[in-house]
Each structure stands twice: as C-alpha cells, then as structure tokens.
Automatic annotation (TrEMBL):
It comes from Exophiala spinifera. It comes from the Eukaryota. InterPro entries: Znf_RING, Znf_RING/FYVE/PHD. The lineage of its organism: Eukaryota, Fungi, Dikarya, Ascomycota, Pezizomycotina. This is RING-type domain-containing protein. PANTHER family: LON PEPTIDASE N-TERMINAL DOMAIN AND RING FINGER PROTEIN C14F5.10C, RING FINGER PROTEIN 127.
Length: 197
C-alpha cells in the first residue's frame, strides 16, 4: 500500500487561508468571465437587432419616399387632366361660336344676294343711286366718270344732259312711297325686295 501525502501536514493554518482565498479569487474570476461572455452575447444580439431595425427603418423611409413621389405625380396628373378638360370646354365653345358666326355669315350672304340686283353693274360695288333719262341706272361715281368720256348712255347710247340724271333712293319695301315723296326732291324709289317678290 502506497503512502498518501497529506498536505495538511505541511500547511499551517495560515497556509490554509491563502489556499481558500486563491480558490475564491479564481471562482470570482471565472464568474466574471461567464458574466462578461453573457454580456458580450447580449451586446451582439442587440447589435443584430439594431441592424435589423435600421434596415426596417430604411425600407420604411424608401416606401414613404415612393409614396410621396406617387402622390406628387398623381396631383400633377390631376392638374393636367383639369387643364385638358378646360381646353376641351374652350374648344367646344369656340367651335360653337364658329358655327354661330358661319351661320350668321350665311344669313348675311343671302341678304346681300337679295340686294345684288341693286348694285351698280359698272363697279359692282356701290349701289345704284342715279338714273339716266333712258331708264338705265348706275352709281353716281361711275356715271360721273362716264360723263368725262361722253354724254351718252353706256348701254343704249342715248344721249343725255347732266341735269337729266335723276337721284335714286333705296327704300325698304315696307316704307311707303308717299312718306318718301314728302321730301319733294325724291323722284324714284328702288325697292329692296328682289324682282321675283
Ligand atoms: Zn358704280
Ligand atoms: Zn340707256
């Protein structure tokens, strides 16, 4: 049987105390190391969580940015379609005005056609306002120009005196000849109504 070494025989009571103290310091150090690694683990977890949160936030920020852009685009689109509607309305109103003007123009053209036979056949612009003794008529300006060339009718060649040229008065068909003749000077009245009427 091998003899066992009993340390107690070599250690005094004081030595025993140092041994205990060393053991407790080692325990405390081990405990600290455990706690430190636990804290380190928690810190790593927190960092991971924080990064995930930051990614979420960034994602949310981008989403909001996109939504703002979409909202702005929608507003612009709304404004543009409002403007387009306004343009369409203006266009419609202009088209109506145009139609209205065209129909008024047509009425005016027909009115002018009605009095076409009253236009001077020499200049085709002015109305007949003078009559020669032969009965042929023209505007005074044309007759005055004609008189410079000779005192005979441009149509039938019958000669006339300047003093024989009579004034013609255009009258509305509803106006009575009596009313016009009260003037005394009036000699002839051409009705505004066309010959067929
Ligand atoms: Zn004329
Ligand atoms: Zn004549």
């Amino acid at each position: 049987m091998q003899p066992t070494l009993n340390l107690d025989h070599f250690l005094t009571d004081d030595d025993c105390d140092i041994g205990d103290e060393y053991a407790s310091v080692v325990d405390a150090a081990l405990d600290m190391r455990r706690k430190f690694s636990s804290v380190l683990r928690q810190a790593r977890q927190l960092k991971t969580t924080l990064q995930a949160k930051q990614a979420d936030l960034e994602h949310e920020r981008q989403r909001l940015e996109l939504r703002t852009i979409a909202e702005t685009s929608r507003n612009k689109l709304r404004q543009q379609s409002r403007r387009l509607r306004q343009c369409k309305d203006d266009n419609r109103s202009l088209r109506l005005q145009n139609q209205e003007l065209a129909s008024r123009l047509e009425v005016a053209r027909k009115e002018l056609e009605k009095v076409d036979h009253l236009r001077c056949t020499l200049c085709t612009v002015a109305f007949k306002d003078a009559m020669l003794p032969c009965g042929h008529t023209a505007c005074r300006v044309c007759l005055d120009l004609w008189i410079g060339q000779g005192n005979d009718c441009p149509w039938c060649r019958r000669s006339f005196e300047v003093g024989d040229i009579r004034d013609l008065y255009l009258a509305d068909p509803s106006a009575t000849a009596d009313a016009l003749e009260e003037d005394g000077d009036v000699t002839d009245v051409i009705s505004l109504a066309s010959d067929s009427e």
